[in-house]
Specification:
Radius of gyration: 19 Å
Shape: globular
Oligomer: single chain
Strand content: 25-35%
Number of strands: 17
Order of helices and strands: EEEEHEEEEHEHEHEHEEEHEHEE
Amino acid sequence: MWISDNWREYELLDASDGERLERWGDYTLIRPDPQVIWHTERKQNLWQSADASYHRSHSGGGAWSRNSLPECWTISYGQLRFRIKPMGFKHTGLFPEQATNWDWFSDLIRRAGRPIKVLNLFAYTGGATVAAAAAGASVCHVDAAKGMVAAARENASLSGLAEAPIRYIVDDCKKFIERELRRGNRYDAIIMDPPSYGRGPGGEVWKIEESIDAFVALAAQLFSDQPLFFLLNSYTTGLSASTMKYLTDLHFMKKFNGKSEADEIGLRVRHGGLCLPCGSSVRCTFEKS
């Protein structure tokens, strides 16, 4: 498992009975997590004194209760800063487990010895975008949700990257790729974090099991003559890391001289020291031709 162990302002304090107890800077949250299927004793007083708790509704959705949080606040990861804002569907605007991937590709960008163009698809609030830009890459950030793109721009500004070479695009990712191919634009690295299900700005339906194979094949056409890396993240139950690796190997390894590895990504739980799986990733690196 690839573990995001370098956080100072985020901490997974405990996990029990379908919930995780987390510290986000100065605030403590309880959020549901379907991976937490064990029933351990909640010994920490913070379970009782959390600033907010998210509860799912039997009719769908959910809401925050016992909420004494500000509307938003910021936390840091190294030089990067992110706005945290609890949302109506349990998210906070950041996936801290992704920090292990930020560290991985940031090192590749810094060591490349050449300008690197990164395409970040399904880019959400820009954790990967600001990490790549901070490492020295130019980044194209694409997401179908206008609000998420605005949040990414704010995170870049908070991180001192307001003037960094970042393009912010509100668009359906597939349509954007097709236009980039027609325009002849190419990228040295591609990051994608596709949802299990979603809709584009024009109502386009995305179902990962039905769409991801053709989508990865299409995106592969955007690589430059000297690709550096490809990163695919998945939070979809039933799509294992090995399954996603098989798919990427089919599309990349025949065409490019490279290697791939796949694993779960996770966070260490302070109470007990075990690691909570939070998704999976496939990392592909390509050698100079």
